[in-house]
Fold each of these.
Amino acid sequence: MKVIDIINSENPTLSLEVFPPKVSAKYESIEKATEEIAALKPGFMSVTYGAGGGTSDFTVSIAENLEKKFDVPVLAHLSCISSTKEGVRTQLEHIKAAGLTNILALRGDIPEGMTNSEEWDYHYATELVREIKEFDKDICIGGACYPEVHPDSENQVEDIKHLKEKVDAGCEFLTTQMFFDNNIFYNFLYKVREAGITVPIVPGIMPLTNINQLKRTLALSGTVLPLRFRYLLDKFGSDEAAMKQAGIIYASEQIIDLYANGIKNVHVYSMNKPEVALKLMENFSEILKWQRP
């Protein structure tokens, strides 16, 4: 099933993101965690491609296993900045052979030491979107967007201009980078609609459950923490169990506010934590009409 059809349905959804292992030694434990999350039957799932400019050899295998074993639609991430055209085509062949029909097309993080842009086969996600459309026009393509501006953009006006180019190239929906203040998302949504971008935009929410996770997240995303969340960290950050509970509650409050304001689809960065995914699904059981397996 195509993710865009799920997003466009009348029913509210909660989708969950997982990541594959970086090395084969961790495959079994990560596969188990992703399966526990898939067993919760979210609206759909996404499987990342690799952070910090890396790529994953396991994205397709994890995605294929989840979709076939649990009958959950899966969105396979595909980034291009560190890839050749031949490499992207090979990955697309793997995705198609696995029976996957949904791709999140990303530029990806520029790897350390990769500086000669004239030699790159890809510079922007828009180029990848066009490549996927040429490969198979029936693939459902999603893209990423940044409510707080992409780190490489000069300003939000320029950022939204490039975002529209990506949508015009064939992106059917967009998923946001994480944010911790819903007003940032609502303001962004107004601006992109004003710019003529009409595709669905799915807000991305990350439950921050420990201090180390917070440091890594802020380093990668540049996301601003509101004062309200900083107070929460000051109070509960040194207590692992309390911080996990506080992080889930904070994320839940963000999600319920989004639903209450007419947003039907919310995407959660689960960080491969089944217990966090379970608690969130339980918190919205009546809204989603979700029943515990």
Amino acid sequence: MQTFRAQIVDMLPRLRRFAVTLCGNLADADDLLQATVEKALRRQESYKTGLRLDSWLFKIMQNHWIDEKRKLSRRGVTVAIEEQYSLIGENGVETQEHRQAAQKLLAIVATLPEPQQLVVACVLVDGQTYEETAAMLDIPVGTVMSRLFRARKTLQGFAGAFIGEQSEEPMPG
């Protein structure tokens, strides 16, 4: 059986994907991930053996994110310059287009109500089942399904507008 710390290390990729979805940028997501792991290690004794470690960690992350979101609403948003302009050695245009598309998608997800954001992060980003998501968020499976349905409808509407925006650009040549 793996040690507690080894199990947390195995969870890092999933936790990071969840954090990026919640935060909308890598810098804040990495901060959230670090804070989550620190809290989990400090509160290891409160983890009850037999409970799902992933649910426990996601709940810690979710609660910390909510707290940080409240603080952020009072202090404003910061943008990491190095994230925006680190194009050396890359196809700058293509890389920037991909980053802009990803930023638009994250911005769209950020416009969803918080309960829908959490369900999107769990199901669409992390690949959890409806049942796993319901257990982690402590809500009925039907609620997960309805929140995801509403989120998908909203995202489809934005995607249609985004595709229309892209097709209006003149063709090269």
